[in-house]
Amino acid sequence: MTTPSLPPRPTYGSSLRPIEERDLAGYGSPVDLDGDDLGLDSEDYGEYELGKGGRRRSLAGRGLIRLGWLALAAGLAFGSAGLAAAADHTPSSGNRPELTWGADQALSVKLDAAVRDLARLKDEVDSLGQMARNTLSSLAQVNQPDLQTAWDEGWNNVSAIDAAAADLDNRLQCGAWESTLHADLIKQYSPALVDRYRKVCLALASVSPLRDDWQSMVNGSQTAMRVANDIETHDSTAGDALELATQGRFPDALAKLDVASSAIVDANSVATHLAVVTDVSTLTQWLDRTKGMDDALRLLWQTMIDSKGKVTAQVTAALRGVNNAKALLPNSTDVLQVVLYEMAGNLTSDGISIETARGTLADALTDLTGGTVFGG
Q1: Which residue of 11, 90, 174, 269 has the lowest C-beta tally within 10 Å?
Q2: Which option is the CATH number for 215-343: 1.10.3470, 1.20.120, 1.10.10, 3.40.50?
Q3: Torsion, Cα of 142, 146, 147, 148 (10° steps)
Q4: What is the mean pLDDT of residues 300-319?
């Protein structure tokens, strides 16, 4: 309804009336209010409804959410890396292993290299032990060439052992353990690693007596071979003297017998020296009986010279003395084996010392590595 005195109301004002009062059916087909027919997707439509300020706030909110997720993921990643690093730390019995862990890693590398060198050192000690056994075997067989070979190879082993031990000691300074090294180590490293260091030094110390042990074995076996050679020289020369005597050449026989007897004198001096430290009663008795035989032969041949080859009462008595002396001698040279066995008493002790050092080093390596050495 209009008022005559007022101008008519504009028709565009009708759009401001409540929507429920409008007859939409009069405008044709229904309109799709979902926005699809308007060419707008739901996101655009939402932004359109929010306006410019709303859109800025919405974008900023979504950006902050993304940044939050990124920060959380980064925190979890760094946390996992920290846990993994912590899990890789070598266990330590120290109160604060995290303070020594870095230094422990460097020292562990050094000790691992030392253990590998100890394993190579053990190979030389094993070989020296074999040479000690070869020495005793060759001596028992009175085999001079094999004995010389054992001596030479053994000295090669000792030289290699000394060089390797000196190199390790120079790197580890084990000789200073009691004075300064131990005190310095406990300030920097965990107790477990200091204990491992000590075990390496003890293993290294086990080889220090080997040079003296081997020298003693060589000296002892040389002395034994000296006696064996004296006896062999005597027997060979005395045999030549007997051959001359059967030809009636008694003066020449006596000269040869004097050479033979000098070898027995030398063997006796060795036996006297050895008797101070070991029982050589068999050797002493054998040498005494051999000397008695020489004296009996000397008397017989001199008597034959004096009688001008005639068999007199003196010659008969001298011959009886030779037979009695001969009866006291062994029927074979097997007694020499017994003599050498007696003389090998100290050599056996030296061999045991070498085997003891070998066993100590083997046990130490087993303790340090569990029986396996990597990277050798």
Answers
A1: 11
A2: 1.20.120
A3: 130
A4: 94
